[in-house]
Amino acid sequence: MNFVLAYKRNPWIGYVLVGLVFVLFMLAEMWNGRFWLSDFEVYYKAAARILQGQNLYRIQADDFYLFKYSPVSAVFFIPFAVLPFAIAKIVYWLFYSFIMLACIHLALRLVSRFRPIEKPSRVNNLVIFTGLILMVHFLRELHLGQVTFILLILYLLALRYLMDGKPGMAGFLVAVSLFIKPFALIFLPWLVYKGKWKELAYTFLYLAILGIVPLLFYRSYSITINQYAAWFHEVVVELGNKQEFSLPANQTIFSVIARYAFLGGLLNTPMLFMAFQSFVLIILAGLMIFLMQKGKRISFREIPEWSFLMGLIPLLAFSGENSFCLFLPAIVLILFMYPDLPLPVKIMAIAGFLLLGGNMHDLWGDNLSSWIDKVSLISFGAISLCSVLAWLRVREFL
User: Which of 23, 30, 53, 187 is most deeply packed, by most CB within 10 A?
Assistant: First the structure.
């Protein structure tokens, strides 16, 4: 009974419950000998190396876990590199757990601008349902020691500062995110279309300022330039490795359309596939412009527009299932608007939630889980949620 009363009166109960799952999962990983954080180890080693002014790229001892990111991103992880790796993993797990909870909180704060969430129990419901829908992705991110939610909180904070009329902070946060992974490039055309010239100017200014930070560690222009050249080479190699649309792990909208429209025989050269990608991008750009035009009279219209763009990132970038975490703002927004949806749209939303977050490997087993990946059910879930957002905009709900 006390818990029920606390749930109704205290809006932080949901965060505590979801956070408790993260801590229990860490203890279970330690108990089972799976406390690896393999991707975090890549950043950790890179941070330690840049502290010593050493090369970051194509180090044979790293084997499969090569560093493929910018020299600036290595600098961001220096606070962890000063700790022993065993301690750094625990600190990063707890830090990342806080970041994930902060993403939910910030998304809720943004959507509550449409109308206040007055009941603490409703806040708890929204937090817990968001946690359940994305729990597979939350736990995978923690197990690997990924950075997707760091990107997400940078995007959400940038959106908040943009809406609050603080272009300098918005530009700085976008610039920081670009040095971790270049996903935020998707926001630049939006900024141009909206005439957000100050935000764009600050973004490029901070890109230039942050870009010279590695020079402080290498103390040589030639070495620093060589490190950037090595990074660009990694980007080119990575892009080349991810052009095969028929790969089971390719969950992009390009791959889904090509496979389900039986275009494999037609898209048999890189040039044809590039032309196909360009055509799809033009269609999506047209859709985005149409949705933005429909939202001209809506207050806080930036929130659903950025949520839609964040949802497009995993559908456009071949980056594995981890990046589908970027649907968190869209999920919070749809859950927030769920009571106002008609039954068919509610069914579409539920289908999207289940397909996006329902591939629980330990529950379904190797064969079924692999089949779910192979037929790209997660992509169909993502498309379904994007469709719900589009419906809400067309009906001018948000």
Answer: 187
Q: What are the CA-CA distances from residue 82 to residues 26, 46, 143, 171, 194 (Å)?
A: 22, 12, 22, 29, 43
Nearest to 180 by CA among 331, 46, 38: 46
As given in the structure block, the two tokens for residue 247 are 């790969």
Residues 6+ apart with CB under 8 A from 356: 133, 134, 324, 327, 331, 378, 381, 382, 385
pLDDT of residue 261: 87
Q: In terms of pLDDT, which residue wins out, 375 or 24?
A: 24
Residue 256 half-sphere exposure, CB side, CA atoms within 13 Å?
Answer: 19
Instruction: Band the pLDDT of 264: cuts 50, 70, 90.
Output: confident
pLDDT at 242: 58
CA 57, chain centre distance (Å): 24
Mean pLDDT on 37-66: 91
pLDDT(137) > 90: yes
DSSP 21-48: HHHHHHHHHHHTT----HHHHHHHHHHH
Question: Cα dihedral sign for 238, 38, 317, 162?
Answer: negative
Report the distance separating Cα 46 and Cα 53, nearest Å.
Answer: 10
Q: Is the pTM of this model over 0.90?
A: yes
Is the CA virtual torsion 133, 138, 143, 146 positive or negative?
positive
Distance (Å, whole) CA 113 – CA 103? 16
Q: How many C-beta neighbours within 10 Å does residue 350 have?
A: 15
Q: What is the CA radius of gyration of the chain?
A: 21
CB-CB contact of 152 with 107 (8 Å) = no
Amino acid making up residue 334: I
